[in-house]
Amino acid sequence: MSSGWKKSLGNVRSIVGNATGGLRGGSNLASWVVAGTLAYYLWIKPSQELKREQEERAALAAASDRYRYVEKVKPIPDLQESGLIYGNKTKSNDPEK
Q1: C-alpha span between 23 and 21 (Å, rounded)
Q2: Domain span at 44
Q3: Neighbours of 47 (CB within 10 A)
Q4: 28 exposed, middle or buried (CB, 10 Å; 0-12, 13-18, 19+)?
Q5: Looking at the domain assignment, is residue 3 inside a domain?
Q6: How many domains are contained in the chain?
Q7: Per residue, what are the HEC states of 15-60?
Q8: Using the 8-state DSSP alphabet, how is residue 88 labeled?
Q9: Residues 6+ apart with CB under 8 A from 68
Q10: Residue 72 lies in a domain
Q11: What whole-number distance in Å separates Cα of residue 43 and Cα of residue 37?
Q12: Residue 1 per-residue DSSP state
């Protein structure tokens, strides 16, 4: 009886080991750390820096325009759309539905 779950556990360990490239122990962990670090510095960090630069440029462009329109009054929400008045809360304006 006990050999059944041991065999199942061994099969799961084998599948996980094969999925990670057959490496075990410290070498497996080290390879994942190296791969994660490379991915961060090659893909994630440059995209974050690009997004930050674009936001800074957009903020500078908006601040430099003296004649830009600034909304002084908060818009009044539609009470029926926001659900404060009952009756039309579940209906959508999409023509598809």
Answers
A1: 6
A2: 35-65
A3: 9
A4: middle
A5: no
A6: 1
A7: HHHHHCCCCCHHHHHHHHHHHHHHHHHHHHHHHHHHHHHHHHHHHH
A8: S
A9: 62
A10: no
A11: 10
A12: -
